[in-house]
Specification:
Largest sheet: 7 strands, mixed
Shape: globular
Strand order of the largest sheet: 3-2-1-4-5-7-6
Strand content: 25-35%
Helix content: 40-55%
Distance between the termini: 42 Å
Order of helices and strands: HHEHEHEEHEHHEHHE
CATH architecture of one domain: 3-Layer(aba) Sandwich
CATH topology of one domain: Rossmann fold
Structural class: alpha/beta
C-alpha cells in the first residue's frame, strides 16, 4: 500500500483514524506553546470587533472558537472543513463553549469556496496549507473572498524540518520520511509561501517564526507520534514491528528525560 496524506484525504479515513485526529487537533488547541503561537498572529491581524472571518480547513474548530471567544468580538466566524465528522464535532464544541451563535461550520472545499467575492474581512488558514492539494488555488480563493484591505493569515509547520531523536539514525530518517508521506502532502509549503502569496495577489506584511522543541520529556511531539505512527504501519512504508519499536523508544526516552523532537512553525500575515 502506498501512503498519502490522510489529512488531505480525510473523508477516506476510518472511524478510529478520525477519532485520533480529533483528539490530536484538540490536544494542540490546548498546548500552551501552540496557543501562544496562534494568539500572537491573531492579535497582529487587527481584527475589528464586528469582523466577518473565514477559517479555512477549520478541523474541529479550535481557531474558530478562539476567534469567536475573543473579548469584545461581536462578528461571525465561518469554519470550512471537508469532513462532515469534523464539522459535527466543531459545532458541538462551539455550542458547549458558548460561542455557537458567533460561529458557523460548513462542509466545503477550500479550493472552491461557496462565498461571494469580497465578503470576508479576514481569512485564516491554520495548519491547513500543508495538507491541501493545490496551495496556490487555495490562496487565490482566499484572496477572492477577502475585501480590499482585508487580512489573511497562514500558520503551519515547516514539516521538512520535523525530526525525532532516535538511537538508530537511519531508522530515524526512515520514520520521519514515512510520517510525512502519511500525514503531510506539502512539507515545504511554508518555504514557498512568500512567492505563493504574491502569485495569489496578496501582499506579505508580517511573519513570525517559531522553533518548537520537546527536549527531555515530551507531551506535544510524543502525542503526534502516538497519533500518526499507526498510519505509517498501515501504509506498509515501515513494517509494523519497527514502528512499534520506534514508538517504544520514544516513550522510554520521554520517561527517562532524554527525548528530543523539533519542528519549525511560521505565521504569515498578508493583505489584499
Amino acid at each position: 500500500m502506498t501512503a498519502r496524506d490522510a489529512m488531505e484525504f480525510m473523508n477516506e479515513q476510518d472511524e478510529a483514524t478520525l477519532q485520533r485526529f480529533v483528539e490530536r487537533l484538540e490536544f494542540r488547541g490546548r498546548d500552551p506553546k501552540f496557543v501562544a503561537y496562534r494568539d500572537a498572529y491573531l492579535a497582529r491581524m487587527g481584527l475589528a470587533p464586528n469582523a466577518q472571518v473565514l477559517d479555512l480547513g477549520c478541523g474541529t474548530g479550535v481557531v474558530t472558537r478562539a476567534l469567536a471567544a475573543r473579548e469584545g468580538f461581536a462578528g461571525r466566524v465561518i469554519g470550512i472543513e471537508q469532513s462532515p465528522v469534523f464539522v459535527e464535532v466543531a459545532q458541538r464544541l462551539a455550542d458547549d463553549e458558548g460561542v455557537g451563535e458567533r460561529s458557523e461550520f460548513r462542509v466545503g472545499d477550500a479550493h472552491a469556496l461557496d462565498l461571494a467575492d469580497g465578503s470576508m474581512d479576514a481569512v485564516v488558514a491554520h495548519t491547513t496549507m500543508s495538507h491541501v492539494t493545490d496551495p496556490l488555488r487555495v490562496l487565490k480563493e482566499a484572496a477572492r473572498v477577502l475585501r480590499a484591505g482585508g487580512a489573511f493569515a497562514a500558520f503551519d509547520g515547516d514539516y521538512a524540518s520535523w525530526t525525532f531523536g532516535y538511537s538508530d539514525h537511519a531508522m530515524a530518517k526512515e520514520m520521519e520520511d514515512a510520517l510525512l508521506a502519511a500525514v503531510v502532502s506539502k512539507p515545504r509549503v511554508m518555504r514557498d509561501m512568500p512567492r505563493l502569496l504574491r502569485d495569489a495577489g496578496l501582499r506579505l506584511v508580517d511573519v513570525d517564526a517559531h522553533a518548537y522543541a520537546d527536549v527531555g520529556q515530551s507531551t506535544f511531539f510524543l502525542s503526534a507520534a502516538e497519533s500518526y505512527a499507526p498510519l505509517v504501519a498501515r501504509s506498509g512504508l515501515v513494517p509494523a514491528d519497527r514502528v512499534d519499536a520506534w514508538l517504544a523508544e520514544l516513550r522510554s526516552a520521554s520517561e527517562d528525560g532524554v527525548f528530543f523532537a523539533a519542528c519549525n512553525y511560521y505565521a504569515y500575515i498578508a493583505t489584499r
